[in-house]
Amino acid sequence: MNIIFYHPFFDAQDWLAGMAKRLPQANIRAWQPGDDRPADYALVWRPPYEMLANRRDLKGIFALGAGVDAILEQERQHPGSLPAGVPVIRLEDTGMAQQMDEYALAGVLRYFRRFDEYQLQQQQQNWLPLEPHQQSDFTIGILGAGVLGKSVAQKLVAFGFNVRCWSRSPKQIEHVQSFAGQPQLAAFLDGTRLLINLLPNTPETAGILNRQLFSRLVPGAYLINIARGAHLVEDDLLAMLAQGQLTAAMLDVFVNEPLPSAHAFWRHPRVTITPHIAAVTLPEQAMDQVSANLLRLEAGEQPSGLVDIQRGY
Protein backbone atom coordinates (compact mmCIF):
# COMPACT_ATOMS: atom_id res chain seq x y z
CA MET A 1 0.00 0.00 0.00
CA ASN A 2 1.51 3.33 -1.12
CA ILE A 3 0.37 6.65 0.34
CA ILE A 4 1.41 10.13 -0.78
CA PHE A 5 1.08 13.22 1.42
CA TYR A 6 0.94 16.93 0.60
CA HIS A 7 -0.03 19.88 2.78
CA PRO A 8 1.33 23.42 2.33
CA PHE A 9 1.30 24.16 6.08
CA PHE A 10 1.50 20.90 8.08
CA ASP A 11 4.85 19.41 9.05
CA ALA A 12 5.19 16.50 6.64
CA GLN A 13 7.56 14.57 8.89
CA ASP A 14 5.08 14.61 11.77
CA TRP A 15 2.40 13.20 9.50
CA LEU A 16 4.66 10.61 7.93
CA ALA A 17 5.75 9.37 11.36
CA GLY A 18 2.23 9.45 12.79
CA MET A 19 0.67 7.59 9.87
CA ALA A 20 3.51 5.03 9.87
CA LYS A 21 2.68 4.17 13.48
CA ARG A 22 -0.96 3.66 12.61
CA LEU A 23 -0.36 1.85 9.33
CA PRO A 24 2.99 0.04 9.63
CA GLN A 25 2.16 -2.05 6.58
CA ALA A 26 2.04 1.05 4.33
CA ASN A 27 4.73 2.93 2.44
CA ILE A 28 4.14 6.62 3.10
CA ARG A 29 6.02 9.46 1.43
CA ALA A 30 5.79 13.21 1.03
CA TRP A 31 4.91 14.06 -2.55
CA GLN A 32 7.39 16.25 -4.42
CA PRO A 33 7.06 17.80 -7.89
CA GLY A 34 7.87 15.20 -10.52
CA ASP A 35 6.88 12.27 -8.29
CA ASP A 36 4.84 9.96 -10.53
CA ARG A 37 5.57 6.74 -8.67
CA PRO A 38 2.57 4.49 -7.88
CA ALA A 39 0.18 5.54 -5.13
CA ASP A 40 -2.97 3.94 -3.73
CA TYR A 41 -4.07 6.82 -1.52
CA ALA A 42 -3.41 10.56 -1.32
CA LEU A 43 -3.61 12.74 1.81
CA VAL A 44 -3.85 16.34 0.64
CA TRP A 45 -4.78 19.93 1.20
CA ARG A 46 -4.77 22.27 -1.83
CA PRO A 47 -2.66 19.83 -3.87
CA PRO A 48 -0.86 21.05 -7.00
CA TYR A 49 -2.68 20.10 -10.21
CA GLU A 50 0.02 17.69 -11.32
CA MET A 51 -0.08 15.73 -8.08
CA LEU A 52 -3.41 13.99 -8.72
CA ALA A 53 -4.42 14.75 -12.30
CA ASN A 54 -3.10 11.57 -13.90
CA ARG A 55 -3.42 9.18 -10.97
CA ARG A 56 -6.37 7.11 -12.13
CA ASP A 57 -5.42 4.10 -10.01
CA LEU A 58 -5.96 5.88 -6.69
CA LYS A 59 -8.38 4.16 -4.32
CA GLY A 60 -9.11 7.29 -2.33
CA ILE A 61 -8.23 10.95 -1.82
CA PHE A 62 -8.33 12.22 1.76
CA ALA A 63 -8.92 15.96 2.11
CA LEU A 64 -7.26 17.07 5.35
CA GLY A 65 -10.01 19.42 6.45
CA ALA A 66 -13.74 19.52 7.17
CA GLY A 67 -14.36 21.64 4.09
CA VAL A 68 -13.55 20.43 0.59
CA ASP A 69 -14.44 23.63 -1.26
CA ALA A 70 -10.82 24.42 -2.16
CA ILE A 71 -10.13 21.08 -3.81
CA LEU A 72 -13.50 21.06 -5.60
CA GLU A 73 -13.04 24.63 -6.81
CA GLN A 74 -9.67 23.61 -8.22
CA GLU A 75 -11.43 20.84 -10.14
CA ARG A 76 -14.02 23.29 -11.50
CA GLN A 77 -11.32 25.67 -12.67
CA HIS A 78 -8.98 22.95 -13.95
CA PRO A 79 -11.01 19.86 -14.89
CA GLY A 80 -9.02 16.72 -14.31
CA SER A 81 -7.43 17.88 -11.05
CA LEU A 82 -9.35 15.06 -9.40
CA PRO A 83 -9.17 11.70 -11.19
CA ALA A 84 -12.66 10.67 -12.29
CA GLY A 85 -14.34 8.08 -10.12
CA VAL A 86 -11.86 8.26 -7.22
CA PRO A 87 -13.70 8.78 -3.90
CA VAL A 88 -12.90 11.94 -1.93
CA ILE A 89 -13.15 11.68 1.84
CA ARG A 90 -13.20 14.67 4.18
CA LEU A 91 -12.47 14.91 7.88
CA GLU A 92 -15.43 14.80 10.24
CA ASP A 93 -15.06 16.54 13.58
CA THR A 94 -11.57 15.26 14.66
CA GLY A 95 -11.70 17.76 17.53
CA MET A 96 -13.09 20.60 15.42
CA ALA A 97 -16.62 20.34 16.83
CA GLN A 98 -15.43 21.16 20.34
CA GLN A 99 -13.52 24.16 19.02
CA MET A 100 -16.52 25.38 17.02
CA ASP A 101 -18.72 24.95 20.10
CA GLU A 102 -16.35 27.09 22.15
CA TYR A 103 -16.09 29.81 19.51
CA ALA A 104 -19.83 29.97 18.85
CA LEU A 105 -20.70 29.98 22.54
CA ALA A 106 -18.16 32.74 23.23
CA GLY A 107 -19.67 34.85 20.45
CA VAL A 108 -23.26 34.20 21.49
CA LEU A 109 -22.61 35.09 25.13
CA ARG A 110 -20.65 38.18 24.06
CA TYR A 111 -23.71 39.52 22.27
CA PHE A 112 -26.38 38.09 24.59
CA ARG A 113 -24.77 39.72 27.63
CA ARG A 114 -23.95 42.84 25.55
CA PHE A 115 -20.25 42.65 26.42
CA ASP A 116 -19.39 44.17 23.03
CA GLU A 117 -21.36 47.28 23.92
CA TYR A 118 -19.85 47.49 27.38
CA GLN A 119 -16.41 47.32 25.80
CA LEU A 120 -17.25 50.35 23.65
CA GLN A 121 -18.59 52.16 26.72
CA GLN A 122 -15.39 51.44 28.60
CA GLN A 123 -13.40 53.15 25.86
CA GLN A 124 -15.62 56.20 26.38
CA GLN A 125 -15.48 55.95 30.18
CA ASN A 126 -19.25 55.65 30.10
CA TRP A 127 -20.84 53.87 33.13
CA LEU A 128 -24.28 52.86 31.86
CA PRO A 129 -26.04 49.57 32.66
CA LEU A 130 -27.88 48.29 29.58
CA GLU A 131 -31.20 46.49 29.41
CA PRO A 132 -30.28 42.78 29.26
CA HIS A 133 -31.46 40.52 26.46
CA GLN A 134 -33.94 37.79 27.37
CA GLN A 135 -33.55 34.23 26.11
CA SER A 136 -37.24 34.17 25.26
CA ASP A 137 -36.73 36.68 22.45
CA PHE A 138 -33.12 35.87 21.56
CA THR A 139 -33.66 33.13 18.97
CA ILE A 140 -30.45 31.76 17.47
CA GLY A 141 -30.48 30.46 13.90
CA ILE A 142 -27.76 28.19 12.55
CA LEU A 143 -27.20 27.93 8.80
CA GLY A 144 -25.90 24.41 8.23
CA ALA A 145 -26.81 21.32 10.21
CA GLY A 146 -23.93 18.96 9.50
CA VAL A 147 -21.60 17.51 12.11
CA LEU A 148 -20.38 20.94 13.25
CA GLY A 149 -23.73 22.72 13.01
CA LYS A 150 -25.45 19.99 15.00
CA SER A 151 -22.79 20.11 17.70
CA VAL A 152 -23.08 23.90 18.06
CA ALA A 153 -26.87 23.67 18.18
CA GLN A 154 -26.80 21.10 20.96
CA LYS A 155 -24.35 23.16 22.99
CA LEU A 156 -26.55 26.27 22.75
CA VAL A 157 -29.68 24.30 23.64
CA ALA A 158 -27.89 23.11 26.78
CA PHE A 159 -27.46 26.78 27.72
CA GLY A 160 -31.20 27.31 27.44
CA PHE A 161 -31.34 29.19 24.14
CA ASN A 162 -34.07 28.85 21.56
CA VAL A 163 -32.24 27.35 18.58
CA ARG A 164 -33.30 26.68 15.02
CA CYS A 165 -31.34 25.35 12.07
CA TRP A 166 -31.60 25.46 8.30
CA SER A 167 -30.03 23.01 5.88
CA ARG A 168 -30.43 21.74 2.35
CA SER A 169 -32.23 18.60 3.49
CA PRO A 170 -34.29 18.00 6.68
CA LYS A 171 -32.34 17.23 9.85
CA GLN A 172 -33.57 16.04 13.23
CA ILE A 173 -31.81 17.58 16.24
CA GLU A 174 -33.44 17.23 19.65
CA HIS A 175 -34.99 20.49 20.92
CA VAL A 176 -33.97 22.33 17.72
CA GLN A 177 -36.53 23.61 15.22
CA SER A 178 -35.53 22.39 11.77
CA PHE A 179 -36.03 24.14 8.44
CA ALA A 180 -34.93 22.76 5.09
CA GLY A 181 -34.62 23.87 1.50
CA GLN A 182 -35.05 27.23 -0.18
CA PRO A 183 -38.83 27.37 0.40
CA GLN A 184 -38.30 27.37 4.19
CA LEU A 185 -35.38 29.83 4.34
CA ALA A 186 -37.59 32.89 4.86
CA ALA A 187 -39.45 31.23 7.73
CA PHE A 188 -36.12 30.27 9.31
CA LEU A 189 -34.86 33.86 9.15
CA ASP A 190 -38.10 35.38 10.46
CA GLY A 191 -37.59 35.91 14.18
CA THR A 192 -33.88 35.05 14.21
CA ARG A 193 -31.93 37.53 16.33
CA LEU A 194 -28.47 35.95 16.08
CA LEU A 195 -27.34 34.10 12.96
CA ILE A 196 -24.45 31.62 12.95
CA ASN A 197 -23.16 30.47 9.58
CA LEU A 198 -21.76 26.94 9.33
CA LEU A 199 -22.73 26.11 5.75
CA PRO A 200 -20.46 24.23 3.37
CA ASN A 201 -19.00 26.44 0.66
CA THR A 202 -20.62 25.47 -2.64
CA PRO A 203 -21.63 27.44 -5.76
CA GLU A 204 -25.19 27.49 -4.35
CA THR A 205 -24.19 28.98 -0.98
CA ALA A 206 -21.63 31.54 -2.20
CA GLY A 207 -22.81 35.04 -1.28
CA ILE A 208 -25.76 33.76 0.76
CA LEU A 209 -25.00 36.23 3.57
CA ASN A 210 -26.24 39.26 1.69
CA ARG A 211 -28.49 42.31 2.02
CA GLN A 212 -31.63 40.37 1.15
CA LEU A 213 -30.98 37.72 3.80
CA PHE A 214 -29.98 40.23 6.48
CA SER A 215 -33.16 42.25 5.89
CA ARG A 216 -35.27 39.24 6.94
CA LEU A 217 -33.65 38.97 10.38
CA VAL A 218 -34.96 40.71 13.49
CA PRO A 219 -33.88 44.39 13.33
CA GLY A 220 -30.67 44.82 15.29
CA ALA A 221 -29.60 41.20 14.73
CA TYR A 222 -26.10 39.76 15.12
CA LEU A 223 -23.96 37.68 12.76
CA ILE A 224 -21.27 35.08 13.50
CA ASN A 225 -19.54 33.69 10.41
CA ILE A 226 -17.32 30.67 11.06
CA ALA A 227 -17.75 28.86 7.75
CA ARG A 228 -16.14 30.52 4.72
CA GLY A 229 -15.47 34.09 3.66
CA ALA A 230 -17.09 33.41 0.27
CA HIS A 231 -20.48 33.16 1.99
CA LEU A 232 -20.46 36.84 2.94
CA VAL A 233 -21.06 39.83 0.69
CA GLU A 234 -18.85 42.16 2.68
CA ASP A 235 -20.26 45.45 1.35
CA ASP A 236 -23.77 44.29 2.22
CA LEU A 237 -22.70 43.62 5.79
CA LEU A 238 -21.21 47.10 6.11
CA ALA A 239 -24.40 48.64 4.69
CA MET A 240 -26.63 46.71 7.08
CA LEU A 241 -24.47 47.70 10.04
CA ALA A 242 -24.69 51.34 8.98
CA GLN A 243 -28.48 51.11 8.72
CA GLY A 244 -28.81 49.39 12.09
CA GLN A 245 -30.45 46.28 10.66
CA LEU A 246 -27.44 44.45 12.07
CA THR A 247 -25.97 45.49 15.42
CA ALA A 248 -22.64 43.68 15.21
CA ALA A 249 -20.74 40.86 13.51
CA MET A 250 -18.07 38.41 14.61
CA LEU A 251 -16.04 37.13 11.65
CA ASP A 252 -13.42 34.41 11.53
CA VAL A 253 -13.25 33.94 7.76
CA PHE A 254 -12.85 36.36 4.87
CA VAL A 255 -12.86 36.56 1.09
CA ASN A 256 -9.17 37.46 1.16
CA GLU A 257 -6.95 36.04 3.89
CA PRO A 258 -4.99 37.47 5.58
CA LEU A 259 -7.41 40.39 5.68
CA PRO A 260 -5.84 43.31 3.78
CA SER A 261 -4.59 46.09 6.04
CA ALA A 262 -6.80 48.69 4.30
CA HIS A 263 -9.99 46.69 4.78
CA ALA A 264 -12.85 48.54 6.51
CA PHE A 265 -13.45 45.63 8.90
CA TRP A 266 -10.23 46.38 10.78
CA ARG A 267 -11.47 49.75 11.96
CA HIS A 268 -15.20 49.10 12.28
CA PRO A 269 -16.29 49.41 15.94
CA ARG A 270 -19.03 46.79 15.54
CA VAL A 271 -16.99 44.12 13.75
CA THR A 272 -14.92 41.60 15.71
CA ILE A 273 -12.18 39.83 13.76
CA THR A 274 -10.30 36.61 14.43
CA PRO A 275 -7.71 35.15 11.99
CA HIS A 276 -9.47 31.94 10.83
CA ILE A 277 -8.90 30.10 14.11
CA ALA A 278 -12.44 29.01 15.06
CA ALA A 279 -11.48 25.36 14.53
CA VAL A 280 -8.19 23.95 13.32
CA THR A 281 -7.31 20.41 12.30
CA LEU A 282 -5.85 18.46 15.22
CA PRO A 283 -3.25 16.11 13.70
CA GLU A 284 -3.56 13.20 16.12
CA GLN A 285 -7.34 12.96 15.84
CA ALA A 286 -7.17 13.55 12.09
CA MET A 287 -4.64 10.74 11.61
CA ASP A 288 -6.80 8.38 13.65
CA GLN A 289 -9.80 9.08 11.43
CA VAL A 290 -7.88 8.92 8.15
CA SER A 291 -6.31 5.61 9.15
CA ALA A 292 -9.67 4.10 10.13
CA ASN A 293 -11.28 5.24 6.87
CA LEU A 294 -8.38 3.98 4.80
CA LEU A 295 -8.72 0.54 6.37
CA ARG A 296 -12.44 0.60 5.60
CA LEU A 297 -11.65 1.24 1.95
CA GLU A 298 -9.11 -1.56 1.95
CA ALA A 299 -11.79 -3.88 3.36
CA GLY A 300 -14.28 -2.87 0.68
CA GLU A 301 -16.41 -0.88 3.12
CA GLN A 302 -17.74 2.66 2.74
CA PRO A 303 -15.79 5.27 4.72
CA SER A 304 -17.37 8.02 6.78
CA GLY A 305 -17.08 11.54 5.39
CA LEU A 306 -17.50 10.46 1.76
CA VAL A 307 -17.92 13.60 -0.34
CA ASP A 308 -20.76 14.02 -2.82
CA ILE A 309 -18.89 15.79 -5.61
CA GLN A 310 -22.07 17.18 -7.15
CA ARG A 311 -23.34 18.66 -3.88
CA GLY A 312 -19.88 19.88 -2.89
CA TYR A 313 -19.73 18.38 0.60
TrEMBL record:
Please give the InterPro entries that the UniProt record associates with this protein: D-isomer_DH_NAD-bd, GhrA_Enterobacterales, NAD(P)-bd_dom_sf
Q: What broad class of enzyme is this?
A: oxidoreductase
Q: Which compartments does it reside in? A: Cytoplasm
Predominant location category: cytoplasm
Q: Where is the D-isomer specific 2-hydroxyacid dehydrogenase NAD-binding domain?
A: 106-278
GO CC annotations? cytoplasm
- The active site of this protein is located at 228, 276 (proton donor)
Q: Which GO terms describe its molecular function?
A: glyoxylate reductase (NADPH) activity; hydroxypyruvate reductase [NAD(P)H] activity; NAD binding
Transmembrane residues, as ranges? none
**Gene3D superfamilies tied to this protein:** NAD(P)-binding Rossmann-like Domain
Write one Pfam family the protein is assigned to.
2-Hacid_dh_C
Arranged from A to Z, the UniProt key words for this protein are: Cytoplasm, NAD, NADP, Oxidoreductase
Describe the reaction catalysed, as an equation: (R)-glycerate + NAD(+) = 3-hydroxypyruvate + NADH + H(+); (R)-glycerate + NADP(+) = 3-hydroxypyruvate + NADPH + H(+); glycolate + NADP(+) = glyoxylate + NADPH + H(+)
User: What EC number(s) does this enzyme carry?
Assistant: 1.1.1.79, 1.1.1.81
Its domain of life?
Bacteria
Described purpose of this protein according to its UniProt entry: Catalyzes the NADPH-dependent reduction of glyoxylate and hydroxypyruvate into glycolate and glycerate, respectively.
Q: Which family does it belong to?
A: Belongs to the D-isomer specific 2-hydroxyacid dehydrogenase family. GhrA subfamily.
Which HAMAP family does the protein's record reference?
2_Hacid_dh_C_GhrA (MF_01666)
Protein name (Swiss-Prot/TrEMBL) = Glyoxylate/hydroxypyruvate reductase A
Whose protein is this, by species? Serratia fonticola
Q: Which lineage?
A: Bacteria, Pseudomonadati, Pseudomonadota, Gammaproteobacteria, Enterobacterales
Gene that encodes the chain: ghrA
